[in-house]
Specification:
The protein is of the alpha/beta class. The protein has twelve helices and nine strands. It has two domains: 182 residues, Rossmann fold; 63 residues, rRNA adenine dimethylase, C-terminal domain (Helicase, Ruva Protein, domain 3). Helices cover 37% and strands 19% of the residues. Helix 3 links the parallel strand 2 and strand 3. The protein is elongated, with a radius of gyration of 21 Å. It starts with 12 loop residues before the first helix and ends with a helix.
Length: 263
């Protein structure tokens, strides 16, 4: 039996695709998302309300829900739902321009702005977030050292939060059906006192050459780091990581390299 819900009349599939919109149409996945965090008594932020399928379930479990939606054609669906539920605030606007004050965040993030939205969440005062993302992007968020998906994004996330996979979501669970599958991940913020002190410029430079060893990656990043190639090669040789491939570096290793480079 097909458990998907009929999509309310609204933006046409062609218009939705042109805006990068794909609406989750699976009650099973909606339930997995809502059940990923305890919500009783909490004020929740939802990024991208769509037709309100997830919004309605969040409102049933949380104290209040503030939903940010950028598409004016979707606002009427959400405002109707807000009148029905009584604990939903609808904000028409760009999530990148709106404040993130809630501790608990949910969102179905468009691929083209996933990176700035994830960074904004990590920079906020959030404690927990459950996010729907394109599979390839989400797998980079949860990737561990040594894996093919381990990247600068992996480091940025792991240095500020614990990131876990909640569910994989087939493309058929969306309307219109996108070209790729999705993933749901859960972020749990690390206390500020446990967030490692990384040199962002160093991490960026290293991961531009993630398949190289540290010595070569630093040498090839001399201009970006504003250092002499010979100096960087000597620095790498003074550490225990000169021959380590960049994508094999743990967070602790990156902390050590960051501290050493500052000396």
């Amino acid at each position: 039996m097909d458990s998907r819900r009929a999509r309310p009349a609204g933006p046409s599939p062609a218009r939705a695709r042109s805006r990068g919109q794909c609406f989750l149409n699976s009650p099973t996945i909606v339930n997995e998302i809502v059940e990923a965090l305890p919500l009783k008594g909490k004020n929740v932020l939802e990024i991208g309300g769509g037709h309100g399928e997830l919004t309605a379930e969040l409102a049933d479990k949380a104290k209040n829900v503030r939903v940010i939606e950028s598409d004016p054609e979707l606002i009427p669906f959400l405002e109707k739902l807000a009148r029905k539920k009584g604990n939903i605030e609808v904000v028409e606007g760009d999530a990148l321009d709106e404040p993130f004050g809630e501790k608990t965040i949910f969102g179905n993030l468009p691929y083209y702005i996933s990176t700035p939205l994830v960074m904004k969440i990590l920079d906020s005062s959030f404690t927990s977030a459950v996010l729907m993302l394109q599979k390839e992007f989400g797998e980079r968020m949860v990737a561990k050292p040594g894996s093919k998906n381990y990247s600068r994004l992996s480091v940025a996330v792991a240095s500020r939060a614990v990131c876990e996979t909640v569910a994989y979501v087939p493309a058929e669970c969306f309307d219109p059906v996108p070209a790729v599958d999705s993933i749901v991940v859960k972020l749990t913020a690390l206390p500020k006192s446990k967030q490692p002190n990384l040199d962002d410029a160093l991490v960026r430079a290293l991961f531009q050459h993630s398949g190289q060893n540290v010595r070569n990656a630093l040498s090839h990043s001399a201009r970006e780091l504003g250092r002499d190639k010979k100096e960087l090669r000597e620095f790498a040789d003074s550490t225990s990581y000169a021959s380590t491939r960049v994508r094999d570096l743990s967070i602790n290793a990156l902390v050590e390299l960051s501290a050493a480079l500052r000396v």
